[in-house]
UniProtKB/TrEMBL annotation:
One of its GO terms (molecular function) is zinc ion binding. This is Protein Churchill. It comes from Leptobrachium leishanense (Leishan spiny toad). One of its GO terms (biological process) is fibroblast growth factor receptor signaling pathway. It comes from the Eukaryota. Belongs to the Churchill family. The keyword GTP-binding does not apply. Coiled coil: none annotated. The keyword Secreted does not apply. Keywords: Activator, Developmental protein, Metal-binding, Transcription, Transcription regulation, Zinc.
Length: 109
């Protein structure tokens, strides 16, 4: 039977690294709220899509708190980001690679 670490409501912000420790209540294994390490980081590039995965790990007992997945790709003129993690939350973002994002047509005054 697997242990699940407790998390609170997650914000939806895309982060490549780092942990939203405000979501982190305590480690299910040792019950301590210690620093969260990033371990087993791997990058996989497939068909122009980059997949970055790593584990959030308890500093105290090395229990894996959550698995973090982050994807990055360029579609047309947009950089597409997605993030999926029990600790950091789930997010999607799209940023124009052009200096002026065609979707942001408001005049700059």
């Amino acid at each position: 039977k697997g242990h699940h670490c407790e998390t609170k409501e997650s914000p939806s912000t895309c982060l490549e690294t780092g942990s939203f420790l405000m979501n982190y209540v305590s480690c299910a294994q040792c019950n301590k709220r210690d620093f969260v390490l990033i371990a087993n980081k791997a990058t996989d590039d497939e068909d122009g899509e980059e997949l970055i995965t790593f584990d959030h790990m308890c500093t105290n007992c090395h229990h894996v708190i959550a698995k973090h997945e982050y994807t990055f790709s360029v579609v047309d003129e947009y950089q597409e980001y997605t993030m999926l993690c029990m600790l950091c939350g789930r997010a999607e973002d799209s940023i124009s690679v052009l200096p002026d994002d065609p979707r942001q047509t408001a005049p700059l005054f």
